[in-house]
Write a structure and sequence with these properties.
The structure holds two protein chains of two kinds. Chain A is mainly β. Chain A is 0% helix and 54% strand. Chain A is built from no helices and eleven strands. Chain A is globular, with a radius of gyration of 13 Å. Chain B is mostly beta strands. Chain B has no helices and twelve strands. Chain B is globular, with a radius of gyration of 14 Å. The N and C termini of chain B lie far apart (41 Å). The chains are: A mainly beta, B mainly beta. At the A-B interface, β5, β9 and β10 of A face β5 and β6 of B.
Chain lengths: 114, 115
């Protein structure tokens, strides 16, 4: 089975531009998570969805960040406008409630904002 | 609130040596899950193991073993006969407060196996 798929794998953009990161969870999983990883702050949970509904977005840093999950197989994380301090690796993960809740991570998107 | 502490920031050992990575957790919940993840140099996060709070049996998988002790709130990870491919950052994580799917991660331990 395919794992969690993220695109793009690398993104370089200029400050002020809009950035959209994409994620396809593992088929059948009903939870989807967005994380950010930096050297300074480690792994941070930004938001998670259950059955396409946002459950906890308390980790979203500010209004410049937004996430959507229009259907069970697709989610986006958008940053508008982007800033250099947004540079990080963004991971998407999914899990299955009827399993044991371990989260499976995608390969990540390395975002660089210049 | 939940907290996971991985006091060892970096560890280096010579290949074939055994190495133990420490994980100490804090939670007020009586039911919780503990996890270990591996992040190799390629960057992806790989799930290694899940342990339930009501199951204190130790687990062995090949060269990997895990020691869960509720009395000391620890969930340590031992690699026996280490190999260069074990070089990675290892994260311990906690899920408690059932009804909430959040994982609380430790800061990770960078393990370097010297050939």
């Amino acid at each position: 089975d395919a794992g969690v798929i993220q695109s793009p794998r690398h993104e370089v953009t200029e400050m002020g531009q809009e950035v959209t990161l994409r994620c396809k969870p593992i088929s059948g999983h009903d939870y989807l998570f967005w994380y950010r990883q930096t050297m300074m702050r480690g792994l941070e949970l930004l938001i998670y969805f259950n059955n396409n509904v946002p459950i906890d977005d308390s980790g979203m840093p500010e209004d410049r960040f937004s996430a959507k999950m229009p259907n069970a197989s697709f989610s986006t994380l958008k940053i508008q406008p982007s800033e250099p301090r947004d540079s990080a690796v963004y991971f998407c993960a999914s899990s299955f409630r009827e399993g044991h809740h371990e989260q499976y991570f995608g390969p990540g998107t390395r975002l660089t904002v210049t | 609130a939940q907290k996971v502490t991985q006091a060892q920031t970096e560890i280096s050992v010579v290949e074939k040596e055994d190495v133990t990575l420490d994980c100490v957790y804090e939670t007020r919940d009586t039911t919780y899950y503990l996890f270990w993840y591996k992040q190799p140099p390629s960057g992806e996060l790989v799930f290694l193991i899940r342990r339930n709070s009501f199951d204190e049996q130790n687990e062995i998988s090949g060269r990997y073993s895990w020691n869960f002790q509720k009395s000391t709130s620890s969930f340590n990870f031992t690699i026996t006969a280490s190999q260069v491919v074990d070089s990675a950052v290892y994260f311990c994580a906690l899920r408690a407060n059932f009804g909430n799917e959040k994982l609380t991660f430790g800061t990770g331990t960078r393990l370097t196996i010297i050939p």
